[in-house]
């Protein structure tokens, strides 16, 4: 059984999302990808790197989708369905881990900066400005080129940059909430600063935090796909972007539409699902929009 | 306002300095011999020792740092490992190609975005509002390499309408200077990459324009303009749109963030000889001086564009509290 607080929290989130037609669609898609990421490699018919042969013993190179190879094969005779199932897991891991870490960093910097103000605020915001000066994708590329193509460097590089937007937005919201009566009352009662920040202010910006969690995950997925497409992905952990990179360097893009279609559709589907969910939260975070 | 601009300029310099510093440490934190990042390991030992001295790599770290800054200002950014040409010269040649493509993409995006945003607000909740919203969100969710490859597959490979990449047809007579950027052959090559980046950027300015039009249309002065008996399209364009434009400028810094990443990808897909593709080439062949230089220039572009959007915002909206952000 779930603890009561968590249950209430989940019920509220479900209500917010399901009120919004696109939001419901988005949540369903995200959940589906999550499940595929979890069980995908277990149900994959072949290994992602296995070169397959057809019934006649010939290498199954560049076969279009058929009953034998549901989503077709690559120029090396690899099964695209299996590759997709493995790649989904990589994407889910990167999206979740870097999305959550970056919202954690961004939210804390924003809350602390906005609440304490003064010199601390100045320092933290100048630091955020500096990160805004970093071109995201080039930074990702340089970091991976320097330190090696591994999943964890991709995640670290994404986390270094993606938090910046959430920090600014959370800070602005904290500044507004800090002035409200209940915060002043808590202060008068003698609550500690940390308690005010995390028990009084944070719950009030929760919709905003969830909105930016969705955004951060979307950005992480996009960033990883882009880096992989440029050849800076982890070679041991296949991802959707990495599949498109193999297609690009194989030079078979003129003919092999199926090799292009499936990873592309999945990237677009997952990212737009995240955007739709974030739009559902936007209405709660920004009530002005509701009347429109 | 002057105080605000001066302060912004100061912050910009600080940011530039910080980015250069981060870059310095990043390229020296590497596992293994840190000199291998500045001096090609392929050179013979005498040459390596000479270069080591020139870059001060035999000195302690803080002296190296000062030397690095000095070389940065003197535009002495080292030599490429692969072609042994000066890094600054290589970048200079590529710089304008990138700026031109980026400028074309931005112009198209803003024109279409602002125009469509107006129409969408006008036809609120009609098909002209809903379909563009959905379409632009999908194109924003698609990384530009997907859009680019799709356009290539349909328009270039299938229908053979556009060249598949590059900046000019091989063998075409080179025109000097600006003539190059105005020749038909160049524009023919420019169309697909521009279209790709524009589709990627479009959602932000378009949806912001729509929302802010809706907001402005509720104001009293619009009511007044209508009451005066002005034609609806005059009210829309002359009164509402002019005020709604402000919020598009506000978010243009978000657009800048998108722009560089999109640029790198599009240049790679369409083999556009700009800084983005140079950076990818350099990084994948471990040509560190070139990678470092390109990164720095791209960072300068981002920082400069951010400054520009900050200043234009403050210029356009005198209501913002000056000195405070």
UniProtKB/TrEMBL annotation, chain A:
<keyword id="KW-0812">Transmembrane</keyword>
<dbReference type="InterPro" id="IPR035906">
    <property type="entry name" value="MetI-like_sf"/>
</dbReference>
<dbReference type="InterPro" id="IPR000515">
    <property type="entry name" value="MetI-like"/>
</dbReference>
<feature type="transmembrane region" description="Helical">
    <location>
        <begin position="256"/>
        <end position="277"/>
    </location>
</feature>
<dbReference type="Pfam" id="PF00528">
    <property type="entry name" value="BPD_transp_1"/>
</dbReference>
<keyword id="KW-0813">Transport</keyword>
<feature type="transmembrane region" description="Helical">
    <location>
        <begin position="22"/>
        <end position="44"/>
    </location>
</feature>
<feature type="transmembrane region" description="Helical">
    <location>
        <begin position="136"/>
        <end position="163"/>
    </location>
</feature>
<comment type="similarity">
    <text>Belongs to the binding-protein-dependent transport system permease family.</text>
</comment>
<dbReference type="GO" id="GO:0055085">
    <property type="term" value="P:transmembrane transport"/>
</dbReference>
<feature type="domain" description="ABC transmembrane type-1">
    <location>
        <begin position="88"/>
        <end position="278"/>
    </location>
</feature>
<dbReference type="GO" id="GO:0005886">
    <property type="term" value="C:plasma membrane"/>
</dbReference>
<keyword id="KW-1003">Cell membrane</keyword>
<dbReference type="InterPro" id="IPR050366">
    <property type="entry name" value="BP-dependent_transpt_permease"/>
</dbReference>
<keyword id="KW-1133">Transmembrane helix</keyword>
<protein>
    <submittedName>
        <fullName>Peptide/nickel transport system permease protein</fullName>
    </submittedName>
</protein>
<feature type="transmembrane region" description="Helical">
    <location>
        <begin position="92"/>
        <end position="116"/>
    </location>
</feature>
<feature type="transmembrane region" description="Helical">
    <location>
        <begin position="205"/>
        <end position="222"/>
    </location>
</feature>
<keyword id="KW-0472">Membrane</keyword>
Automatic annotation (TrEMBL), chain B:
<protein>
    <submittedName>
        <fullName>Peptide/nickel transport system permease protein</fullName>
    </submittedName>
</protein>
<keyword id="KW-0472">Membrane</keyword>
<feature type="transmembrane region" description="Helical">
    <location>
        <begin position="9"/>
        <end position="27"/>
    </location>
</feature>
<feature type="transmembrane region" description="Helical">
    <location>
        <begin position="134"/>
        <end position="157"/>
    </location>
</feature>
<dbReference type="GO" id="GO:0055085">
    <property type="term" value="P:transmembrane transport"/>
</dbReference>
<feature type="transmembrane region" description="Helical">
    <location>
        <begin position="99"/>
        <end position="122"/>
    </location>
</feature>
<dbReference type="InterPro" id="IPR000515">
    <property type="entry name" value="MetI-like"/>
</dbReference>
<keyword id="KW-0813">Transport</keyword>
<keyword id="KW-0812">Transmembrane</keyword>
<feature type="domain" description="ABC transmembrane type-1">
    <location>
        <begin position="95"/>
        <end position="309"/>
    </location>
</feature>
<keyword id="KW-1133">Transmembrane helix</keyword>
<comment type="similarity">
    <text>Belongs to the binding-protein-dependent transport system permease family.</text>
</comment>
<dbReference type="Pfam" id="PF00528">
    <property type="entry name" value="BPD_transp_1"/>
</dbReference>
<feature type="transmembrane region" description="Helical">
    <location>
        <begin position="244"/>
        <end position="266"/>
    </location>
</feature>
<dbReference type="Pfam" id="PF19300">
    <property type="entry name" value="BPD_transp_1_N"/>
</dbReference>
<feature type="transmembrane region" description="Helical">
    <location>
        <begin position="186"/>
        <end position="203"/>
    </location>
</feature>
<dbReference type="InterPro" id="IPR035906">
    <property type="entry name" value="MetI-like_sf"/>
</dbReference>
<dbReference type="GO" id="GO:0005886">
    <property type="term" value="C:plasma membrane"/>
</dbReference>
<dbReference type="InterPro" id="IPR045621">
    <property type="entry name" value="BPD_transp_1_N"/>
</dbReference>
<feature type="transmembrane region" description="Helical">
    <location>
        <begin position="295"/>
        <end position="316"/>
    </location>
</feature>
<keyword id="KW-1003">Cell membrane</keyword>
